[in-house]
Amino acid sequence: MQKRAFIAGLMATTMLVATPVLAAEWDGPTTGPEAAEGKSIVVVAGDLKNGGILGVTNGVEEAAEKIGWDVRILDGAGSIQGRTAAIGQALALKADGIIINGFDAVEQQAALEGVAAAGIPMVAWHSGPKIGCDAPGGIFANVSTDAMSVSEVAARWALDDGGEDVGVVIFTDSTYQIAIDKADRLKETVEAAGGTVLEYVDTPIADTSTRMGPLTTSLLQKYGDSWTHALAINDLYFDFMGPSLAAAGLSPEQGPQAGSAGDGSEAAFQRIRSNGYQAITVAEPLNLQGWQLVDELNRAVQGEACSGYVTSPALVTTEGLAKMGDSNAFDPDIPYREAYSEIWGK
Predict the structure, then answer these.
(1) 253-275: per-residue pLDDT in tens?
(2) Of 296, 292, 287, 291, whose CA–CA distance to 36 is shortest?
């Protein structure tokens, strides 16, 4: 297998975490309404076991403290029923605004229609394929990186790393439209470049702790050495793959090289840093996106326009992390806290 290398010709919007990320100019909003006073908001989290959702939630809490709002976190705990119940609880709390964090708006269409009917502004993180302003489901703004670009970066890494003999297994979760779209783009990118997609595996993110071990063993038996790379739409899949690879007698260098098209969880950073059965992740600036959600909600509650800002992802590699100190999160060294604080008059 070729030595892991950075992808040549990545799109300009993608930051490479190959060296410490230096301070850069802020490319987000510089104007907007000052802080609305005395607001109470609710974050409805799809599943706080998901590192991406947790990272965004932490950013929301940090930003809410700065803007001076009360925030309540409700955990959908990885189930459709749990998320429906959490939205109902948010309605009962008569929140001034709701943040939909990490689940598909289509899944909860009826519940979100109730929120919209109550006149409660909603913003979201990863609520569907449409990024930015006026997302479906009555959502004022859907905050995300460009999910298709994220998939392309991960797929091109696998192609570059695997060379002519690359054989890819893709993991996704059809519960979420965005997960299907990301996985489809992974498949299209690999195949368009002449790579082989061995299998397209649809397995729920919420069940990875019980499913990924047996799945990994089964796929190893089925494909053997032809399985060179595993690509997933979320880091959580690789939380539970390593033990099965180790049980099969495969070292991190020998087994399928794992790369995630999102989100850059703390656990993923630790695996990449320690050569622990994950080679790369395409990370989002989760903390920054938490701040952006609060800013978009501040605009929504005051009847102002959505900012339309879209953040850039980063390809995170072992080599890059070795030069970045002990941090296990992608938090770009740009002055987003200062920028949002200035907009809010804080």
Answers:
(1) 999 999 999 878 888 999 999 88
(2) 296
